[in-house]
Design a protein that fits this description.
By secondary structure, the protein is an alpha+beta fold. The chain has helices spanning 24-41, 46-52, 124-131; strands spanning 5-10, 54-65, 74-82, 88-97, 102-114, 119-120.
Length: 140
């Protein structure tokens, strides 16, 4: 199996809290940034999703904090989709320090919302595969 998609991120000072470690909400920003980067790497833009009448939605997110991150830390944020039948999919993400230490594990359940009906679209994998110019980043 190939390595999961990842992007580098540097923890910025303004993202830290009074204890000097990364604010808990920022982990979600890093995860979201990586998911959108994966979509761009697949060749899918926000405009194309809207043109198709769908938009990604988060249905559930769990974060397991393992080690603190402080300003200046260089991390890699991974993103791997786990596909199943139905209207939802899982996204597994890891935030890893430069030395390999896992700082956080993020698991999410997502779907594609039909923007007209305001309900989850059936077969999100098929929709993304059709839109992608490089579907391999999704693990197809």
């Amino acid at each position: 199996m190939s390595e999961p998609f990842s992007v580098p991120v540097t923890v910025r000072g303004y993202e830290t809290d009074v204890q000097g470690h990364l604010n808990q909400a920022v982990y979600l920003n890093y995860a979201e940034h990586t998911r959108w980067s994966l979509l761009r790497a697949a060749g899918i833009s926000q405009a194309e999703l809207i043109g198709r009448g769908v938009g990604p939605v988060a249905l559930e997110t769990t974060i397991r904090y393992r080690r603190e991150l402080i300003a200046g830390d260089e991390v890699q944020v991974t993103c791997a989709f786990a596909w199943s039948e139905g209207k939802t999919f899982r996204i597994e993400q890891t935030i890893r320090k430069a030395d390999g230490t896992v700082a956080a594990e993020i698991t999410a359940v997502g779907g594609l919302m039909d923007l007209e009906q305001r309900r989850l679209a059936p077969e999100p994998r098929k929709i993304l595969e059709e839109l992608a110019t490089d579907p391999s980043v999704f693990g197809f």
